[in-house]
Known about the structure:
By secondary structure, the chain is of the alpha/beta class.
Amino acid sequence: MPKIRVLLINCNTMLDTLVTAGIGILSACTKEAGHDLQLFDTTFYRTADVSGDQARAAALQVKETNFADLGIEPNEEDVIEDFVKTVKAYQPHLIGLSSIEVTHRLGIRLLDAVRDSGIPTVVGGPYATFAPEIVIRSPSVDMVCVGEGELALVELCDRLAKGEDIAAIGNLWVKQDGRILRNPVRKPIDLASLPRQDWSVYDERRFWKPMGGNISVTGTFEMNRGCPYTCTFCINSGFDKLYGGLGGYYREQDVERMVDEMAEKKEHYNLVYVYLVAESFLTTSRKRIRTFSRLYREKVGLPFWVEARPESINEEKVNLLNETGCEGISVGVESGNFKLRKDVLGRNVADRTIQKAFELLRKTGIRVSANNIIGFPTETREMIFDTIRLDRELDPHGVMVSFFSPYKGATLRDMCQELGYIEDEDIALDYRLGPTMDMPQMSAEQLVGLHRTFPLYVKFPESEWKHIETAESDTPEGNAAFKEYSERYIREFMG
């Protein structure tokens, strides 16, 4: 069978260097099937004014780091021109675009630039999965992958290599003879059947990741796929619906296999830090966590970072995390208003449960961050201050606050559209950079002001809140106040 050359576009946000498990697995599957894959990566091009990490540092959520210290700076060359040159040099048989909602438009611009080449194109990723009708309308898009892409991409390559019809490939929407053929979604793939990630496609700079104020060579590993919960603000609620009749989307990776891959990659890539992809790391059996703890200590032994839900945290699990070498954990608080949390976000978690989780973590040496979100539909300023007050009680090391972005696939997107806050074809913005919606009870301008002062309200005494409120406004007086408070915050809480 002839070998198909695939040019896969990783349309990434600027300087977000963390390698993605999905790209590595797609590459490994393609090569295992006897084909070739090359990556065109937008990570190091200047595609934005600031990176997500820079925005978070400016908003006092993370310690400032500087890629320039490692000789890493955004490429000033034109990303479109470089992509066209890559296509001419590599001469692919197929171009794939992997994008998220915030980078989708850039991805389409790349495909538009080579539309006249006649090379078939396929678009996948969360936005393609949840907005296929929108994506397929682009003249430069020939196919859309709805759901998981590993089996669909391999079958597509095999059929192209054999000159066979590609009209009936599961998970793909295909343009053919003026029609759009919408093939059904396959059953979720067995994670044990997937090969180990192929990291050879990545620029070595992709492994340098800022974490906890340090830039370290970091590896990403998929602990599980999907989430056992269906929070309305998260696209996992969409995956749960998409795969609801196919056995569900959530699956767990075999622990022993995963740890073996970690050990292998640690040696080959000189990893010093591990980033575990698991929407709720501790929501699993005690046996599984104990097995991970034992094997990880024996074979890997590197500091690592995880995410967890408050209700999954107990004393035994916290002790295991500490013993295993967990360096950082982010715990989802999201909102401090119980009614909003329960009725709008689908998180029926009591304040006392959240408080107890942070009390347990505070006894360890683990760096703990509270994840918060502001700007939900119907959320008011008073509700946001409920979150601030809860965070004050929790007293985390790091205060993370994101703008709610109504991404396609999230159940809450529908509510936002019904309320008229966003149109069907509108692209939701990067949750780190700014709000997507201007709402009657909370304007975008007000959200920006609260976003940048949120950590100040959490950490400084309430007697200073009137002065901090001045720092919310984008005025000479407000910016001077914010600068003064930022310097104090960094000195007192991030030193």
